[in-house]
Amino acid sequence: MLVRLLVKAEAEVQVILTTSASAFITPLTLATLSKRPVLTEFVLNEQGVWNNHVELGLWADAMVVAPASANTVAKFANGFCDNLLSATYLSARCPVFVAPAMDLDMYQHPAVQANFTKLRGYGNFIIEAGYGELASGLVGQGRMAEPEEIIRGLENHFSGIGKTV
């Protein structure tokens, strides 16, 4: 798992989980792996404790969005910020690495490809989806890149070696 590999590489990891993502993996699992509370909302509790997206965006040395759904990619590409993740993205001053994961027809759709082009134009790094069996049962491009590949892209970027991703 990506979070485990990042922590093993001595990275400080702050997970921001969207509502949709929590259907696939629990905050408890990610909090255990990252050794930090998982953030999901702008406001943490009824007392008004605020998860400051600007501070998060300034704190990070890199932002890795994995897996990135077509919806998240579209939000990033078009400046929508209706959740903590997209607001943090818009506040980030660090390199952003986007590892998409979606069904092959979605991945190849011209609108999604145009959003990838926009993100690259903003200076983001797209870690291309892999080829294989997808959640739908179809086989094709759309699987999130393997965690090791994402780690290699980060290491290459920060060491200045060759192509980033």
TrEMBL record:
<dbReference type="InterPro" id="IPR003382">
    <property type="entry name" value="Flavoprotein"/>
</dbReference>
<dbReference type="Pfam" id="PF02441">
    <property type="entry name" value="Flavoprotein"/>
</dbReference>
<dbReference type="InterPro" id="IPR036551">
    <property type="entry name" value="Flavin_trans-like"/>
</dbReference>
<feature type="domain" description="Flavoprotein">
    <location>
        <begin position="2"/>
        <end position="155"/>
    </location>
</feature>
<protein>
    <recommendedName>
        <fullName>Flavoprotein domain-containing protein</fullName>
    </recommendedName>
</protein>
